[in-house]
Amino acid sequence: MNEPDAMPITRAVVGEVLGPVDVTVDEATLATFVTRAALAETGILRGKDGERFLPGGTLGEAYTRPLDAARYYYLDALQLRHEERHFRPIVVGEALTCRDTILEAGTTRSGLSYVDIEAVVTDAGGNAAFISRTRLAVEASNE
To answer: What is the CATH number of domain 7-142?
Structure first.
């Protein structure tokens, strides 16, 4: 999101829940992942019935979808920390839902303002496909 009327990410409130936002692992998502991960299409996992699977981290950026929907601006943010827990592969064509929660906000020792975001991506049955936690920070002058 690069919109002039968006709020800085540092205005997010601890405890705020963003979403749900539906995310489908479509061909465009697959192509983006293949490009970013520097993989050939042949490197994607395939099931017995020809299903294609992506590693759980394919949608590691899924946390940005609820931020976009809530109209938060984050493109000037530094990603200081990112961790993921993967519970299973993602099927190409699968519909998923992402919810973000703002876990913490504050100021680093170096004076950067930050927010910690937990993104939980679930499948149609409500089961977690993966969970990521990310710390984004911006310079105080960018708030």
So the answer is: 3.10.129.10
Q: State mean pLDDT over 19-35.
A: 80
Q: What average pLDDT does this structure show over 81-107?
A: 90
Cis-peptide into 55, omega within 30 deg? no
Give the CA dihedral 7, 117, 99, 30, nearest 10 degrees: 100
